[in-house]
UniProtKB/TrEMBL annotation:
Keyword flag Hydrolase: yes
GO molecular function, one term: hydrolase activity
Protein name as catalogued: Alpha/beta hydrolase
Taxonomic source organism: Arthrobacter echini
UniProt-listed SUPFAM superfamilies: alpha/beta-Hydrolases
Family label: Belongs to the AB hydrolase superfamily. AB hydrolase 2 family.
Length: 213
């Protein structure tokens, strides 16, 4: 991707008093996939919905992998940096510097959202991860995450996001100072309606008031 403004994405401003949801689709999805969740998660919110820049057998993804659950961590780090750069551009381009950005990702999208928060909390420090896992296996995280808040939603029997990786994710986040809310349900990979309801309550509780002085 040569320049950030060429990154395919959708943007809607929403209410100026509301957050902007950064929507991060799963493998094989597009920038349209998570749009139906916006009003359920945060009525009146704006949204910024980019398309994953990596192709895997014709499917959009956010970073390369060597196999199921085996991430190319160097590429994860690179793509998280690219996403952080895109967010900096979007804030200025759309005049949303003062708006709170809340990353909402599913599966592969949750993983790039988590990686970006872990490595670039200045870009996005409030993250809702559905069916995500630890994306930086073997890589030390030294970032100060004392201002970050992360909500994790996982299935207890998810083979694509194993619970040991989810536990490690929470531990790493907390060790760097982040506030972590863990939500585990029965079942496997997916996004359940009860999780959306809980996430909406969490977003409302973690949304800053916008000053218009």
């Amino acid at each position: 991707m040569s320049t950030t403004h060429e990154w395919p994405h959708l943007f809607t401003e929403g209410s100026p008093d509301s957050p902007v949801l950064l929507l991060l689709h799963g493998t094989g999805g597009s920038e349209h996939d998570l749009l139906p969740l916006v009003d359920e998660l945060s009525p009146g919110a704006g949204y910024l919905s980019p398309r994953g820049p990596v192709q895997e057998h014709g499917m959009n993804r956010w970073f390369r992998r060597f196999g199921e659950g085996k991430f190319d961590v160097d590429d994860v780090v690179r793509r998280a940096g690219e996403l952080a750069g895109f967010l900096e551009w979007a804030r200025g381009n759309y005049g949303i510097e003062d708006r709170q950005l809340v990353a909402v990702g599913f599966s592969n999208g949750a993983n790039i959202g988590l990686a970006t928060t872990l490595l670039h909390p200045e870009a996005v420090d409030t993250t809702v991860a559905f069916s995500g896992m630890y994306p930086l296996d073997g890589r030390a995280v030294e970032t100060d995450l004392s201002g970050a808040s992360v909500a994790l939603f996982n299935g207890s029997a998810d083979p694509m996001a194993p619970m040991d990786s989810v536990v490690r994710l929470g531990s790493v986040l907390e060790s760097r100072g982040a506030h972590v809310d863990r939500n585990v349900r029965d079942g496997g990979h997916g996004l359940h309606p009860t999780e959306v309801t809980t996430a909406a309550t969490w977003i409302a509780a973690h949304t800053r008031e916008v000053s218009h002085d």
